[in-house]
Design brief:
single chain, UDP-N-acetylmuramoyl-L-alanine:D-glutamate ligase
């Protein structure tokens, strides 16, 4: 798996992109309020609504994301002739989105209402009806009218009826030599036969191809899907596993970034928007996918359906030297290390529980990074920590420990392991350097014999602070006990 891709610090000129978006348009409505008590009528919270917000959703959110980046956008879709449609028109028009809407009095504009309290979604209520009896002739007429202006088409399918027959749009675009990107829905990807790129999430992908137990199966079944449906490339969004780009002869994986996930609403819209705008502006597909991965990490830190601006992307881009760092599984890490070695890079490995990260840890990691080009940190799983430290540990769960480590600028890859020792990982990776803190003697370093046997180095790092997670936890417990007394 090719993981050698690095991005330049300059974004493409999104103003060069003119994108035609077709799909299911909906209105996202938010009620914000505080919860002060539980209802006496039923065991449910009472929300005192203090604010209301409206945002374009579905294909509307895709169009808004594109416009926020500075791309030229034409949006084609179906709405009713109702208040929700009026709000959508006003908001999208004010964002400079050109609209070609099919408005019908007998249809109802889809609304998703979310009740939010203290940044937590309490309930979602959907008001919608599929457009099962809608005549698509007018949609195709709008599409043919605007297609000559576009250098890329995005089909945003939420399975609400607008794209009940997507093939004619794909065929018209291909005949005009305009690439087509699809955010798919459902389990019949034959509907997207001939598309250039589709962007399913991992659940949608497995629903189509069946369960995938490992990276090999993902690649195998992904390529079979491409061949079966004459699709150019497949970008699978995988949540905490990042994204995987699969082409007929190549593949790339983009690990997830360490970010606090506030809300995943609309993250897929952001991915296909940034991907489409980047490709339309002249970026190659690998670079565009890496940028879309970065954008997704930004938008999940925002509440509700949100957009990512060009300045936000630029700041994030400048802070990332590599778009291949982050939390990975073993297979992804093996591919990454292989790719780094092909470039003559030196791999440093260290491991630990990292239950309560402190200054001693950070300094050791900083010094370990100076011993090579890439730093791999292997973290004991929760079960492994309990085996080593006792049933009261870990204090912080594995996902939290890995997220904190991946957020450190000196750490390139973070991987977990279930074994009591990292020896199996060392045999697999064969790092150039095994680094451990100076509180160990050389003959006490687990895995030292393995590393020296194949010609690697074992380096001890002097500790500048006499700190340990166990001592910190014991002090906290002692202070808590004394306070209670």
């Amino acid at each position: 798996m090719d993981m050698q891709y690095f991005l330049k610090e300059n974004l493409p000129d999104f103003t060069k992109a003119t994108i035609l978006v077709v799909g299911d348009i909906m209105l996202d409505r938010y009620w914000f309020g505080d919860v002060g008590r539980i209802s006496p009528e039923a065991p449910v919270p009472i929300v005192n609504v203090g604010g209301i917000d409206h945002r374009p959703g579905g294909a509307g959110n895709v169009a808004l994301n594109l416009a926020t980046l500075g791309a030229n956008v034409i949006l084609i879709g179906v709405t009713g002739q109702d208040e929700a449609a009026t709000i959508l028109e006003e908001q999208l028009a004010s964002a400079n989105v050109r609209l070609a809407l099919c408005k019908h009095a007998h249809l109802t504009t889809s609304i998703k209402l979310r009740v939010i309290s203290r940044s937590q979604q309490l309930i979602r209520l959907d008001f919608e009806k599929n457009f099962v009896e809608f005549d698509q002739a007018l949609l195709r007429e709008h599409f043919q009218t605007w297609l000559p202006e576009a250098n890329l088409v995005i089909l945003s399918d939420y399975n609400k009826g607008c794209l009940q027959a997507p093939l004619p749009f794909i065929q018209l675009a291909r005949a005009a030599h305009v690439p087509v990107l699809v955010d798919p829905k459902g389990i019949d990807f034959h509907r997207y036969d001939g598309a250039d790129i589709i962007t399913p999430n991992f659940k949608e992908f497995e629903n189509e191809v069946g369960p995938c137990a490992n990276e090999h199966m993902i690649l195998k079944k992904g390529r079979e899907l491409l061949s079966r449906y004459h699709i150019g490339s497949l970008l699978i969004t995988r949540g905490e596993q990042g994204m995987t780009l699969i082409g007929p002869q190549s593949e790339s994986h983009f690990p997830a970034y360490a970010r606090e996930v506030l809300d995943v609403t609309g993250a897929g819209d952001t991915v296909i928007s940034v991907l489409g705008a980047s490709v339309a502006a002249g970026m190659d597909l690998s670079a565009a996918s890496a940028l879309a991965n970065l954008a997704a990490s930004i938008v999940v830190g925002k509440l509700g359906a949100a957009t990512v601006s060009t300045p936000e992307l630029q700041v994030a881009l400048m802070s990332k030297a590599s778009f291949l760092s982050g939390m990975v599984n073993e297979e992804q890490l093996l591919h990454a290390v292989k790719a780094a070695r092909a470039q003559g890079k030196r791999i440093v490995f260290t491991n630990g529980c990292f239950d309560v990260l402190h200054a001693g840890h950070v300094l050791c990691l900083q010094m370990a990074k100076t011993l090579g080009d890439y730093l791999v940190v292997a973290v004991n799983s929760d079960a492994s920590v309990r085996q080593l430290k006792g049933h009261s540990r870990p204090i912080n769960h594995l996902a939290h420990r890995m997220t904190v480590l991946a957020g450190l600028g000196v750490v390139d890859w973070v991987v977990s392991f279930d074994d009591d020792t990292p020896e199996r990982l060392l045999e697999l990776l064969k790092p150039d350097v095994l680094a451990k803190g100076g509180d160990y003697a050389l003959n006490e370093v687990v895995g030292a014999e393995i590393v020296t046997r194949y010609g690697g180095e074992v380096r001890l790092i002097e500790r500048e602070f006499d700190l340990s997670s166990t001592d910190i936890i014991d002090r906290i417990r002692k202070t808590a006990t004394e306070t209670m007394i």
